[in-house]
Amino acid sequence: MARNSIGKNLILTSFGESHGAFVGSVLDGFPAGFKIDIQQLQRDMQRRRPGQSNLTTSRNEADEVQIVSGVFEGQTTGSPITFLIANNDTKPKDYDHLKDVFRPGHADILYQTKYGIRDHRGGGRSSARITAGWVAAGSLAKQFLEDPTQNKLPIIITAWVKQIHTIELPKPNQIPSKSKIEESLVRCPDISMSEKMIEAIEKAKSEGDSLGGIIACTIENCPIGLGEPVFGKLQAVLGQYILNINAVKGISFGEGFHVANLKGSENNDSWKMSDNKIGTITNHAGGIIGGMATGEPIYMEVAFKPTSTISKEQQTLDASLNESTLSATGRHDPCVLPRAIPIVEAMANLAIMDFVLEMNFNP
Amino acid sequence: MARNSIGKNLILTSFGESHGAFVGSVLDGFPAGFKIDIQQLQRDMQRRRPGQSNLTTSRNEADEVQIVSGVFEGQTTGSPITFLIANNDTKPKDYDHLKDVFRPGHADILYQTKYGIRDHRGGGRSSARITAGWVAAGSLAKQFLEDPTQNKLPIIITAWVKQIHTIELPKPNQIPSKSKIEESLVRCPDISMSEKMIEAIEKAKSEGDSLGGIIACTIENCPIGLGEPVFGKLQAVLGQYILNINAVKGISFGEGFHVANLKGSENNDSWKMSDNKIGTITNHAGGIIGGMATGEPIYMEVAFKPTSTISKEQQTLDASLNESTLSATGRHDPCVLPRAIPIVEAMANLAIMDFVLEMNFNP
Amino acid sequence: MARNSIGKNLILTSFGESHGAFVGSVLDGFPAGFKIDIQQLQRDMQRRRPGQSNLTTSRNEADEVQIVSGVFEGQTTGSPITFLIANNDTKPKDYDHLKDVFRPGHADILYQTKYGIRDHRGGGRSSARITAGWVAAGSLAKQFLEDPTQNKLPIIITAWVKQIHTIELPKPNQIPSKSKIEESLVRCPDISMSEKMIEAIEKAKSEGDSLGGIIACTIENCPIGLGEPVFGKLQAVLGQYILNINAVKGISFGEGFHVANLKGSENNDSWKMSDNKIGTITNHAGGIIGGMATGEPIYMEVAFKPTSTISKEQQTLDASLNESTLSATGRHDPCVLPRAIPIVEAMANLAIMDFVLEMNFNP
Amino acid sequence: MARNSIGKNLILTSFGESHGAFVGSVLDGFPAGFKIDIQQLQRDMQRRRPGQSNLTTSRNEADEVQIVSGVFEGQTTGSPITFLIANNDTKPKDYDHLKDVFRPGHADILYQTKYGIRDHRGGGRSSARITAGWVAAGSLAKQFLEDPTQNKLPIIITAWVKQIHTIELPKPNQIPSKSKIEESLVRCPDISMSEKMIEAIEKAKSEGDSLGGIIACTIENCPIGLGEPVFGKLQAVLGQYILNINAVKGISFGEGFHVANLKGSENNDSWKMSDNKIGTITNHAGGIIGGMATGEPIYMEVAFKPTSTISKEQQTLDASLNESTLSATGRHDPCVLPRAIPIVEAMANLAIMDFVLEMNFNP
Q1: N or C, where is chain C less crowded by C-beta within 10 Å?
Q2: In chain C, where are the structural domains located?
Q3: Closest to A72 in 3D by CA, of A103, A42, A35
């Protein structure tokens, strides 16, 4: 299989399966001497953890992270940092019926075809449970980027739910506050929209169905010139990190696909100076030009498909490749977006920190 | 700068600037004993080359590729293949005015800020001229993938213009033929739409403006299971390759951003057997599930911004970071999409071949 | 720090410190469907484990390996395989005196200078204890390479002690048997020499001193052409893996440094055919020419320095960089070579398997 | 084939064959704004070029380097730097007899077996001629490391011939001066030894034979802590770079293989302070402990085999794998060491600069 590591200077290696002893990750390249805030790390885990509300899967995991290397007396040592997260609430029996049938929209059948073997329990390696290890690592990257002693300005990454099914927020005039986002069960900063989204999810859940949506994400205070302008374009590396998140089907920057409808004279952002800093008057580009940060906030949108596992009956193939039907039981989210917020943030933090370390090359 | 190489098993290294002696690339990892079709390579270069119609820049380059290593008596030897493409029609004088002013939408100012130096002639390293070296390498990957002696079924990658400005083709019922696409000056397979697009480009050009659009791309006969399911998801690697193409602002797969509006029961593709092969009844997923190929055609859309260099007057900064205006002269495309078609295909061919080589690991 | 991963197709990521909760590793890229022999794995761990005889450190670790991912019902799944080895017999108190003084020959002072922090307990990350995770991974690689269903001929890697201090075996006429090697406490296949070596080690131990030596290693049945002939030369990659083993100061192939004294007519190996296979009449080259395997056994020698931690008094610096003296206590090996045998084999098995996977590219 | 690139932060990609249009390389990751000394670059090429004395091959190449990218108005731009070196004095006809016979000690037969095709002209890709591209890149790395504005102290790498055949210099008390080394045709800093070596080479040449030897190399002023202590140990990365040089059969550091004969109390280097800098009283370690630089000069020795191509008759196989004999004609060096000096220095400079860039991470 390979390709379970990502990053050049800050390398995340992911391991584990949904119902093994642990999921986890190794984070290599993190600078030494950084004081870790374990409470913050654990709070970030809580945002991703299953069972946090009745909108999410009922699997109940504390998701307490054990750091077993690379940290000494509360500080990073420069050695690889290993995160272990126990799989406690495993009910492999619940998944016994998945041994014999392949879920539509799921990779089970592809694992079986490609590898000739699969761990069918809870989706095995293809379960989004493995992102627990990414969020743990991402929390450290976030702490580093937000630390004003590391960067002249704290680099702040904020994601929120912009759309669930047909309920859609307009593009914001300003970046919503993190507290506003966290107040909402679905992590949508507009209260009335948030309520409508919750209703829609509950309705889909009651129908045995699921919903997709769009997450928006901003990155503030990216150093000007961050990114490497040929095959390390900022949008390409952010794309690579984020398109690896389960259920993502698209990513766009700035005006995104709407850019197709614009003329150059409408889409170009004029350069300006303000506060002795380079910037642009408008920000159609979403903070990236020529693969590098312009200094304006980076803005991206990420499309998530509706959860594939639904309890509505679907046509499919069984383990013998004969036609069959499936009404899935087991535990799953009717809409992944609320729990995907910290995952998008984690991947963005890891991608940006990788570049920040590299930028120190050429002071 | 670094990050001028891309790929794991088939590694493309890009070099060169718009007005240096050569642009080019090195392709490492190509298997030995493959007979190269030089005419085909040259035809692929023609599709990208400037000056091919009056819709494109008037810079006139033959773009004849010189292969200076890795090929012996017409066959690959397994050694790295080096492509040189001379820059002949260089008019650096035309760009003298760009020494002193930074173009909106362009990376000039970011290069200058980040590196403290830049080759201003024709955009230097940030010019899309460097993609000539990518298209040369991509042509070899294409020849390999389309060769039935290398793959049970030829893997065929087809890109076309789906939208320019507001003129938009519907999603096709079937993949358009390559000859149909090439008949059109803008590489749009629908003749009447193509004519409207040409008119729109000509109008924008006459106004000193530029247009954006969307390219669609399909990949047929991808082996089932192609892609590596954690940090080498097929969509993530295709995304990484294609988001590195100049002017790209978004990429999506299957239903793309429209997936947000769908329910699981609408978006899931039921598994089926046909001709003794696994497949899906519908293809909302665009041929990729869990990061691996389903056997159905891969479908992706790529958003391109309108060309940043326009002759309309724009507000900007000069080299001393004072406010200024710019009406760009020099040569540029009023719409990059027609010439971007072979670039998208090249990057997709390179990405897919990288995975095909890896798949041979686990026979 | 970074650079805690090694390999291109089969990637070993190492983590852990001497006195943390676990040392371990993640092995990514191992093919799916391979039945693991856990008993064999545990036997390989026993050969490296401390406390196995009174010639080794008295630290007593069972070194039972817990595999927490990538293996399902006894078979590899293609997912990354994670090995955890608990640190049980930790006596951090024993190392308290090392907080305040820097050992000659040890990296303590360099860690402190470079990172501004170090885990001083038992050498922390610089302890050879971390090689437990390498040996676990290497055992799987060995099982793969020795499996005749994976390779036409089992690839067999054998290391033995060739020299300890001044007691030196001549170059062997034939590769010693593994059982003969294991019969000896010092892993030297010549019984009388082995006894002399044991005496020498015991004497050094009683004097509070330590001994160096040379390990020889052969690789049989390497496929002809294994290795990549420019920057992936077989000797360079084997060198990279093995020079990363703690205490190694040199590596050589075939005639090694003696090659300096030879003429071309003496050193060249004439090509021959035997049993319808290419080979050479002599094997001065040690099985590698032009960076690729010739089909003859690969022969290499590896020089190990005497253990740096000794109880004899030595001059050094203390934590305040003032002059000081040190007579080390704590637990350490008077000679690392007997326990280094499985480590050399593990690294060689991992390096060779990485190339074997790559060779499947070009069938 | 792949693996024609080396380095993590400063990546050298090698291309070309002995009798193609060009050999060359691409150097990616070199910082922007560095003023290149072209005369120095050309002087470094002269030291490697064939035909520089009657001790070397009679192939006559000016080896003028054409830099076709990455340098603008004499300064690096941060973009990849491409070096082209024309193959002018190609006499492919001289090698026609090598089409039909495989030279002992050469990789011809392995290329043919592995790839099913080879460029037989002058050894093709396996010719040491390709190192011209390495020396060009290495010269830039050298200029960077020796520049006091880039590093607090210039990092100086010096290689010399320590042994040819049985004529051997003792380990030096001090590092020989570069001018002393260059005064000697064989690059041995001891005049009387140098004369004996020249005689020995001339004698071997007249007998149609060739000689091996040992090159010593020092690195002065390496920053303390340079190197990454697990799988990026300084000796492992230097080993990887240098074992990839054609004809190298071994590498050792400090006491090298002699370390086997030493006790810990003899081999350990006591830490000391001098001039407010950490260092060691002795330097048995050769400047590297725990994979990191100690601040003392790095000392390494590299063993080169005698040139494989000799005119003495040898037994071998022909292209049909039948027994045959060969008395090679064509042009070759009777001893490669004098011309290998700049190659060893180039690879060491590239390896060290790669680490220096990385060290800037953690200031």
Answers
A1: C
A2: 5-361
A3: A35
The answer to whether residues D145 and D353 touch, using CB atoms and an 8 Å cutoff, is yes
Whole-angstrom CA distances from B162 to A256, A284, B194, C267 are 16, 22, 10, 66
Q: pTM for this one?
A: 0.97
The chain B residue lying nearest D84, using CA atoms, is B68
With an 8 Å Cβ cutoff, the interface of chain C facing chain B consists of: 9, 31-32, 78-79, 230, 357, 360-363
Cβ distance of A361 and D32 shorter than 8 Å: no
Model confidence pLDDT, tens digit, residues C100-155: 899 999 999 999 999 999 988 888 999 999 999 999 999 999 999 999 888 778 99
Is the separation of the CB atoms in A137 and A348 below 8 Å? Answer: no
- The CATH code of domain D5-361 reads 3.60.150.10
Q: D116 and B22: CB-CB below 8 Å?
A: no
- Tell me the chain C residues in contact with residue A23 when contact means C-beta distances shorter than 8 Å: 69
Which range, of A327-331, B90-94, B112-116, B179-183, averages the lowest pLDDT? B90-94
pLDDT of residue A361: 47
CA–CA gap between residue A46 and residue D204 (Å, rounded):
75
**Each residue's pLDDT tens digit, A94-128:** 677 778 899 999 999 999 999 999 998 888 999 99
State the DSSP H helix or E strand holding residue A240, giving kind and residue range, or none if neither: helix A234-243
pLDDT digits (tens, 9 = 90+) for D147-204: 988 877 899 999 999 999 999 998 888 999 999 999 999 999 999 999 999 999 999 9
Distance CA D202, CA C122 (A): 56
The ipTM estimated for the assembled molecules is 0.96
CA quadruple B216, B219, B225, B226: dihedral, nearest 10: -90
In a 10 Å sphere around its CB, with 0-12 CB exposed, 13-18 middle and 19+ buried, how is residue C206 labelled?
A: exposed
Nearest Cα residue to A252 out of B263, B243, C296 = B243
Q: How confident is the model at residue C266 (pLDDT cuts 50, 70, 90)?
A: very high
CA proximity to C211, closest of C164, C251, C159, C245: C164
- Report the relative pairing of strands B167-168 and B156-164 from DSSP bridges: antiparallel
Residue D165: which region, alpha, beta or left (left: phi > 0; alpha: psi -120 to 50)? Answer: left
Listed residue (D163, D162, D144) closest to D154, CA to CA: D144
Is residue D36 within 8 Å of residue D71, measured between CB atoms? yes
Hey, which chains touch A, using 3+ CB pairs under 8 Å?
B, C, D
E strand residue ranges, C29-114: 65-69, 71-72, 75-76, 81-86
Mean pLDDT for chain C?
93
Q: C244, C321, C350, C361: best mutation site toward chain D, by most D Cβ within 10 Å?
A: C244
pLDDT in tens, D262-273: 999 999 999 999
Chain segment B17-72, per-residue pLDDT in tens: 999 999 999 999 999 999 999 999 999 999 998 878 878 777 788 889 999 999 99
**pLDDT-derived band at A363, boundaries 50, 70, 90:** very low
Please choose, from the candidates A277, A279, A258, the residue with its C-alpha nearest in 3D space to the C-alpha of residue A267.
A258
Give the D-side interface with A, CB within 8 Å.
Answer: 9, 31-32, 78-79, 230, 357, 360-363
Query: Hey, which residues does B73 pair with through a beta bridge?
Result: none
Test the A interface: residue of B120, B240, B296, B362 with most A CBs within 10 Å: B240
Shortest CA distance from C28: residue in chain A: A2
Query: What phi and psi values does residue C167 have, to the nearest 5 degrees?
Result: -95, 110
Which positions in chain B have a beta carbon within 8 angstroms of at least one beta carbon in chain C? Answer: 9, 31-32, 78-79, 230, 357, 360-363
From CA A271, how far away is CA A273, in angstroms rounded? 7
d(CA C148, nearest CA chain B) in Å? 16
Q: How far is CA A104 from CA A99, A297, A310, B253, D175, in A?
A: 14, 38, 9, 17, 70
